[in-house]
Amino acid sequence: MAEIRIRKTNEIISGEEKVRDFLNKYEVIYEHWDTEKLPHELRENFSLTDEQKAAVLEAYQSEIQDLAARRGYRTWDVITLSEATPNIEELLAKFEQIHTHSEDEIRAIVSGAGTFIIKGDEQTGYFDVNLVPGDLISVPENTPHFFTLTDERKVVAVRLFVEEDGWIAHPYEDPAFQK
Ligand SMILES: CSCCC(=O)/C(O)=C/O
Ligand SMILES: [Fe+2]
Ligand code: NI
């Protein structure tokens, strides 16, 4: 289950309802996918072939279609990040910079773990959303955020986009950001 850490205060928010209520204040949706729907050979597999990525999307086809109908997503993909990813450092360097997207996007973790760090309001500042398999959040349009891996350095995620062009990031310089 997802857990939140508010960076300024180190406050931890856990429990499905509390996490959902907190995130909803920032127009971030928090939902849950059934991890049992993923075929066994695709679980905790961090070097998926294109066919296996297609099978991940197939496993969650009804959830994806439901989100597309509710919220207008038009394209989706599967991303794997691990030591087996040839350009892992290059990708992480991009994901770990504060950026925005000019559309709302979905991230659903299917294997491994990852953290989205999202900018809340002035008072709350940045908060970490630690995600494990089955956790799904949205990243709202024009909301500063970045992504990093946990110490295990491996994740598989399904991403849903409104734009046909997929992942496009706009760098966001934030003098108020403190690590
Ligand atoms: C685990 S999803 C990969 C990172 C990404 O798509 C993103 O937008 C980071 O901010
Ligand atoms: Fe992003
Ligand atoms: Ni749940």
- For CATH, the homologous superfamily is named as Jelly Rolls
Reported CATH architecture:
Sandwich
Number of strands: 12
Structural class: alpha+beta
Q: What percentage of residues falls in helices of 4 or more residues?
A: 10-25%
The total count of helices amounts to: 4
Catalytic activity: 1,2-dihydroxy-5-(methylsulfanyl)pent-1-en-3-one + O2 = 3-(methylsulfanyl)propanoate + CO + formate + 2 H(+); 1,2-dihydroxy-5-(methylsulfanyl)pent-1-en-3-one + O2 = 4-methylsulfanyl-2-oxobutanoate + formate + 2 H(+)
Pfam families: ARD
Site (Important to generate the dianion): 107
Family: Belongs to the acireductone dioxygenase (ARD) family.
Characterization of this structure:
The protein is an alpha+beta fold and 179 residues long. It has a single domain, classed as Sandwich (Jelly Rolls), CATH 2.60.120.10. The chain is 22% helix and 32% strand. The protein is built from 4 helices and 12 strands. It has helices spanning 16-25, 50-59, 61-71, 88-95; strands at 3-6, 12-13, 30-32, 75-81, 99-100, 105-112, 114-119, 126-131, 135-139, 145-149, 155-161, 170-171. The strands form 3 sheets. The protein has a 5-stranded antiparallel sheet with strand order 2-1-8-7-10. The chain is globular and about 45 Å long. The relative contact order is 0.23. Bound molecules: ligand L3FJYLFB, fe (ii) ion and nickel (II) ion (NI). Nickel (II) ion is lined by residues 16, 32. Monomer. Pathway: Amino-acid biosynthesis; L-methionine biosynthesis via salvage pathway; L-methionine from S-methyl-5-thio-alpha-D-ribose 1-phosphate: step 5/6. The record marks 107 as: Important to generate the dianion. Fe(2+) binds at residues 99, 101, 105, 145. It holds the Pfam family ARD.
